[in-house]
Known about the structure:
Elements: E1 3-6, E2 11-12, E3 15-16, H1 19-24, E4 34-35, E5 39-46, E6 52-59, E7 62-67, E8 71-75, H2 77-87, E9 90-91, H3 93-98, E10 105-106, E11 118-126, E12 138-143, E13 158-160, E14 177-184, E15 192-194, E16 205-207, H4 214-231, E17 240-245, H5 253-263, E18 265-266, E19 298-300, H6 314-322, E20 328-332, E21 358-361
Parallel strand pairs: 4-21, 8-19, 8-20, 9-10, 20-21
Antiparallel strand pairs: 1-12, 2-3, 5-6, 6-7, 11-14, 11-17, 11-18, 12-13, 13-14, 15-16
Amino acid sequence: MLGAGLAHRNIRGGKRATAWTAFVLPVLGNPLLTVLTCALVSRVLFDGSGRVVGVEMSRDGVISQLHAGGDVILSGGVIGSAQLMMLSGIGAAADLRALDIPVRTDLPGVGANLHDHILTTVVWASRRLVPGGRANKLEAQLFAASDPAMAAPDLQPLMSYVPLPVAGYDVPAEGSGYSVLAGVIRPLSRGRLQLRSADPAQAPVLDPCYLAEPADLSALVAAVQMTREIGSQPALAGWRGREVAPGPGVRTREEIAAYIRRALLSYHHQVGTCRMGIDRLAVVDPSLRVPGVSDRPWRVARGTVMVTSAARLLPPARPGAEAAPGPGLGLGWDHRDHRDHRGRRRPQSCPARAGAGLLGSAGGGI
């Protein structure tokens, strides 16, 4: 899909619609569903024959086990799912042994293939007051190709009425400027998630390896150049003041590349740490099952199984729906611990939420 358009929103009944409000809230009263909040799952349980039978968790200081009569579905997200698999002895054998975690299955693809969409902001001061927007800070977007020979877009400039902060720059206050964000949506760089310790409450180590592939930096330079071209159009003449970041002193490709390395941002579209496939580094097969680990079906769902990154909400929700064939034990992750665009943490009443089937939270604290 190539072209420009206004940003869409997921609204129902005047309120934002999420996977939780769309799929879980309507069935909270169903006797087949039990939701446990503030629960920390520490490992997957296996019986003596190697079958997956449930999980171990702690809640209110009490360690207990949940056993499933059917499938077990792990839906802890790109961080929680891979972390819990490693804590359960499924991952790169050498890494697990280094942390004194007994190896159940040597599966080096667990935690690999971590990648994300990347952004760099171009900020302008405005000649007049910029009114508030209607689409959650991002008003419009363009899907474009850095190479005309490409059949699909790899760039996504985004228009925001907010002059987003850039490290080292004194950007205008909200209402006195605006931003166009240069984005790359088909990155080639791949990073990795690794355990910090065998303690499930310890956050894992993330190495996203942003810009490790030269092609990603080249594409983002092209995106910044395209963003500046958009910002210089006559239609914005009545609004456009001076370019604040990167500023008129940054012109050459080398100077733009240096700015990108200083001001790189994440879309927070991380995926891939439990990648789907049929090769030796695949973690789940095309039916989302973990092969060669248990003869009882257990599956991994959400964006963590995706081979390439995609805009969130709907793409990661689809694997979750596909992985839910019937009654069983499902492990979800509560993503309410978000930060706003200035890095301020939003309130959160519980560190984790369990969901779907019988839901527990997956993995350690993030």
